[in-house]
Amino acid sequence: MPEKSEKNGRLNVIASLRKLISEGVYAPGERLKELHVAERLQVSRMPVRLAFRTLEQEGLLQKTGTRGYVVRQFSEEDVLCAVEVRGALEGLAARRLAEQGVTEEVGAQLRDCLSRGEALLEKGHLVKADIEVWATLNQEFHRAIVGATGSRVIHDAIARNDHLPFASADSIIIDDAVLDREYGKLRMAHAQHQLVFQALSRGEGARAEMLMREHAYIGLRYGTLFGLGEVGRASETT
Amino acid sequence: MPEKSEKNGRLNVIASLRKLISEGVYAPGERLKELHVAERLQVSRMPVRLAFRTLEQEGLLQKTGTRGYVVRQFSEEDVLCAVEVRGALEGLAARRLAEQGVTEEVGAQLRDCLSRGEALLEKGHLVKADIEVWATLNQEFHRAIVGATGSRVIHDAIARNDHLPFASADSIIIDDAVLDREYGKLRMAHAQHQLVFQALSRGEGARAEMLMREHAYIGLRYGTLFGLGEVGRASETT
DNA sequence: TCGTTATTCTTTGGATCCAAAGTAAAGGTT
DNA sequence: AACCTTTACTTTGGATCCAAAGAATAACGA
Question: Would an 8 Å CB–CB cutoff place A112 in contact with chain B?
Fold first, then answer.
């Protein structure tokens, strides 16, 4: 059973359910029954119902025509679309930020991310733990940009579209081949980050947008969207 | 009190609450109490709680730091961002559609929209009822494009970002000046639709995208996002 | 034996109840 | 008189109960 919140001893049903789905406990296409989930999480049906609503909005669950919810299936096509949506929105954020100018604080934050990325690269190779480090770093870089636009509307739009159930790095086997590929991806992503930062600093909005949109594809290009093989299994997505 | 569903006699709490907010019954910034809304809509607190969750996801409500929800305030800046987000996403849809090719069925649907738009224009002026006609027509055109991409991911992304509480046409005073401006807007929008359709038919993806992005601004350019003066009153949006 | 109908069971949606957390107010103390 | 503490009340979150809608199954008729 999932761990409860430290603060009030309450279970975050939404997070738990999201985790169960991304772990594949509830498989894509599977019908989800309130009572079943409730018993599994040791809560009553009520919080589960709330969670279903939220996860439906996130796109993780899907209302069946008749009744109840099923776990949404994502095709490779869906993943591509999600990537493009993300690219479009983050590109928008980048353009806005470039046009409104990067503050000293945000600039420092981005530079910090870049230098930490540099440090990772200088090692010449990756170990498993580095993948998580990079993931955090990457997230920080992107969040800084989106956050710096100051537009909650854009921020929310991105957040709302960021719930595709990709497995996290620790749920798949990381062998040397994977680490090699990840290193290559990291090199490329880092270079792209540098370019984006450059464009942002120079106030080149259109260029920043274009670079960010291209950057969004990196996970696909390097075939290291963890778990893609799993989520891509679905042939039908409607 | 709002009308109940014909089918099962049940009230759509989400739609009702959304309406109440867009009508200004619950003003931006106002704290929303479950019990109060429940009594107003003649339902128990439960469906209201569900609705709060959904509307929070939609961005209409906002969780306060401590407890409860407040009606979200939208600044003019927010509206601009929402428009750009919409443009970015619909632009994406247009590009995809152009690249994958417009089917005969979708082509016919779009042509139908265009000819109906033409008919409206030929009258040389608008009456109040035409505004609603155009709104429907416009919606149909955009939906056809987004729907034709076949990507639910993109469709949902757009739908999720389409909940800003603009007042509908019938909630403001429509005088001759407004009708004139609307006629001008309609001319322009129709022309843009024609161009988008042309680009789509020719498979010119990048052009279709660019045109669609520009088209998104039309409501702002013509200052006829009904109710913008209202929602724009908020100075702070965080 | 197959199809149709009726009955039962499953599952969801809504209402009410209870507990916990947070807020406001009142009273006491310095 | 001002500030702190304690108490009462407001409001939300969770649990349970009840009703209604759907699905499955069984029984009856052709």
Answer: no
